[in-house]
Design goal:
mainly alpha; globular; 177 residues
Length: 177
């Protein structure tokens, strides 16, 4: 799918368009949301809500930024709204599940060690404050350039660099403990 413009939104059927957007960005949005809420089921529900919001707001997309940036902005704002919500603060949801897909042909011992290391790293990243967690996620997991991260988070590029540096320091400290 080519990057969408305001003109193409009027030409394509909204349902076909949202289906394409979901197919292209669905997994990335789900992972982004999970990085905020730390719960698979809640992340899936919020991702659905985000795409409903996106569907309803398609006519407001003016093409001034990339569609991906626009969608990430919706997702991040929705996650932050959820984290401030009464439900999140007053309802306890637990999750003891960790999904791991190992590389074939590894020894069982290597797989277990890698799984433990991956799980520890994921736990430490998820324990970071949101402003650091989001830059780590976008930079390393989404491989977004600093410029794009700044646009998505609506901050200056130097702010992203500072947060990334601080996040790495925190990760190093916590992993050494």
């Amino acid at each position: 799918m080519n990057e969408l413009t305001a003109e193409s939104l009027h030409l394509e059927d909204k349902e076909v368009l949202i289906d394409e957007i979901m197919n292209k960005y669905g997994q990335e949005i789900l992972q982004l949301v999970y990085s905020y809420v730390k719960n698979k089921e809640i992340a899936e529900d919020l991702t659905q809500d985000i795409f409903v919001k996106c569907y309803r707001s398609l006519s407001t997309y003016k093409g001034k930024s990339k569609l991906r940036t626009w969608l990430w902005r919706i997702a991040i704002n929705h996650c932050k709204d959820y984290l401030k919500s009464w439900y999140n603060k007053n309802v306890m949801v637990t999750e003891n599940e960790y999904v791991y897909s190992g590389v074939p042909n590894e020894s069982a011992e290597q797989t277990v060690i890698q799984h433990d290391e991956d799980q520890r790293l994921a736990e430490v990243v998820m324990s970071l404050p949101i402003k650091y967690r989001e830059v780590i996620y976008l930079f390393y997991f989404e491989e977004s350039p600093i410029k794009d991260i700044a646009a998505v988070l609506q901050v200056k590029e130097n702010t992203v660099k500072t947060r990334l540096k601080r996040a790495k320091e925190l990760l190093k400290e916590r992993l050494e403990d």
